[in-house]
Amino acid sequence: MTEPYTAAVGALMTAVRTLTTYFPNAWQVSYNHSDVTRGAEYFFFCTPSAFPNTRLDGREKLYQWQTDVDIYMRYITEAESIPKFIAFRGAIITLLHTPRVLKNVNVTRVTVVSSNKLQQDIPGRNPNFLIQALTVTTEQIVSS
Questions:
Q1: Bond into 127 cis (ω within 30)
Q2: pLDDT digit string (tens) for 103-136?
Q3: What is the C-alpha to C-alpha distance for residues 43 and 73, in angstroms, rounded to an integer?
Q4: Which residues touch 117 (CB under 8 Å, ≥6 apart)?
Q5: Count of beta carbons in the 10 Å neighbourhood of residue 41
Q6: Residues 44-78: pLDDT tens digits?
Q7: Which CATH number fits domain 4-143: 3.10.520.10, 3.40.50.150, 3.30.2000.30, 3.50.50.60?
Q8: pTM to 2 decimal places
Q9: Which residues pair with 70 in a beta bridge?
């Protein structure tokens, strides 16, 4: 049996990869921030985070797996990039709020939040990206 968090984040990454307008290559959705050097326009990088849990009954726990996600979009100009970034981020949020989007992992709910401002990595550097940190929480029922 796959470790529960591995299964939940794997399902998250599989779902995000269906946004092929933004992620035509599987490596654009990964744990590896250094993939940004591979030459794509958009990226979705995952890092494990907190995982509060509560016991539902004698055999099941409800985990709230938190995954820190950095979304990257190649910067062109402010006038062009900001609307594109809003559409890109919106597509991710819409997808993840779709009921039962994470398949076969007993996830009951997915939430996406950000308390971070949109940032530009290093102005004038090539490539140059707009970046925003998100927290994706997947609530998963895990049997003991």
A1: yes
A2: 888 888 899 999 888 888 876 666 689 999 999 9
A3: 7
A4: 132
A5: 16
A6: 999 999 888 777 777 888 889 999 999 999 998 88
A7: 3.30.2000.30
A8: 0.91
A9: 45, 133
